[in-house]
Design goal:
Helix content is 30%, strand content 25%. The protein is an alpha+beta fold and 426 residues long. The strands form seven sheets. It has a six-stranded mixed sheet with strand order 8-7-6-5-9-10, sandwiched between helices. A four-stranded antiparallel sheet has the order 2-3-1-4, with helices on both faces. Helix 6 packs across helix 7, helix 8 crosses helix 9 and helix 10 runs antiparallel to helix 11. The longest helix has 22 residues. It is elongated, with a radius of gyration of 23 Å.
């Protein structure tokens, strides 16, 4: 997945980030500048492999930490440098998160550890994944552990003084074991969730396929929807269609919530039968070659009444405002506020109980945050996320509308293809 990517991670004075954006205007074939950490001045430049000299010219007066030009011989070093660049003075890194390992190496298995330093990248796994690892993680040395994976990792890190590890994915026992085996060494938690925010062409193609599978499955389900079907039956049919259309698995547990239950933002499908007059909310997604889609649609079974139309119209307008205002240069928190302020102005602020959206890719929820917590990441072209406002009224019902989008230079491009106008199933 790395062959079409040319990347420079650079660290500059925070006040010079705007200068980098200005300089980039003279290099049309460079894809973007992404701000990884605005306060620290860490940026990410990406283009195609033939842009190497131009990129060097841009940062020649800046202390860059790493250059990757797409050459296979540099992959091992890239794995370490793409993590170390965020955290100075690391001698090695130990990565447990399966999605980060897949992103950096191509390995799709689990129950493994990726070790990397400035000389080598080693994937530590067991006999179940040995041949798969050799086939998929060609940039790594493959080591099979015998009894305890942490003993093997500790042996690899025996000469290190400072060890970085992705602590969010370590259990308490994992940490204690590693700390005991690496006695006397400094363990430093590292956060790698930012390195996957900007998607390349191949990643976007896989996400588009996942979206299209979900789109088609939903349209097939609507042809069968009728009163008396249970929410579980509807969820099961939707999941069957996604699988039959090529999904490797579900993006998450399918949500089908009808009638009063549609006021539950995460109303997992129940034995309730859908009835005339119900709002029915469907929230679901497919996974294709590791990449997720996520969409929500709310329909009315039968003819919509005035209350249905009022609530639906407000949410539809709110979602449109979110899509319209999603542009490079703003934060997820700012985008969330645009939509939240509108819903509040219509009198339903207390009934909008979640954030506007979330990043999506190898995980169903990843960076960037499109909510009140999304203050530190500036949205950039190539980022993928959802836009999903909703209104929920306990005892009555609710509406949510959600699309998966990719941010471009011009704004949000909606990947979801199913229409969003209020649909009455009669």
């Amino acid at each position: 997945m790395l062959e079409d990517r040319s990347t420079i991670y650079a660290k500059v004075a925070p006040e010079r980030i705007a200068d980098v954006n200005w300089i980039m205007e003279g290099y049309e074939h460079l894809a973007l500048v992404s701000t990884i950490d605005h306060q620290e001045g860490i940026i990410l430049l990406r283009g195609t492999p033939d842009t190497y000299n131009d990129v060097l010219e841009i940062v020649e007066n800046m202390p860059y930490l790493y250059i990757y030009t797409g050459n296979g011989d540099e992959l091992e070093e890239m794995i370490f440098e793409s993590t170390e660049m965020l955290y100075e003075h690391l001698d090695c890194v130990v990565i447990k998160d399966v999605n980060t390992i897949r992103y950096l190496t191509g390995f799709r298995g689990d129950s493994s550890i990726l070790y990397a330093d400035d000389r080598r990248a080693v994937l530590v796994t067991d006999g179940r994944y040995l041949y798969q690892a050799r086939a998929e993680a060609k940039c790594c040395h493959i080591v099979e552990y015998a009894e305890n994976i942490w003993h093997t990792v500790a042996e690899l890190a025996q000469d290190a003084k400072t060890v970085g590890f992705d602590g969010d994915y370590f259990t308490y026992n994992d940490f204690n074991t590693l700390q005991e085996l690496l006695c006397g060494k400094e363990l430093k938690v590292i956060d790698l969730k930012y390195i996957r925010m900007v998607k390349d062409k191949r990643e976007l193609e896989l996400m588009w396929r996942a979206v299209k599978i979900a789109d088609e499955a939903y349209l097939r389900l609507l042809d069968e929807l009728q009163p008396g079907m249970t929410e579980k039956t509807l969820a099961g049919r939707l999941e069957y269609y996604m699988r039959s259309l090529g999904a490797e698995k579900l993006a998450f547990e399918t949500i089908v919530a009808s009638g009063e239950r549609s006021a539950l933002p995460h109303g997992i499908a129940s034995d309730k039968e859908v009835e005339i007059g119900d709002f029915i909310t469907f929230d679901f997604g497919a996974v294709y070659d590791g990449y997720h889609s996520d969409m929500t649609r709310t329909v009315v079974l039968g003819m919509a009444n005035s209350w249905h139309k009022e609530i639906y119209t407000i949410v539809e307008e709110a979602q449109w405002r979110g899509l319209k205002n999603a542009k490079p240069g703003i934060t997820g928190a700012e985008l969330d506020a645009v939509v939240r302020d509108y819903i509040t102005s219509r009198g339903y602020g207390e009934n909008y109980v979640h954030g506007l959206g979330h990043g999506i890719g190898l995980e169903i929820h990843e960076m960037p945050n499109i909510n009140k917590r999304g203050q530190n990441v500036i949205l950039q072209p190539g980022m993928t996320f959802t836009v999903e406002p909703g209104i929920y009224i306990p005892g009555k019902g609710g509406v949510r509308i959600e699309d998966t989008v990719v941010l471009t230079d011009e704004g949000a491009k909606v990947l979801t293809g199913v229409k969003k106008q209020l649909m009455e199933i009669v």
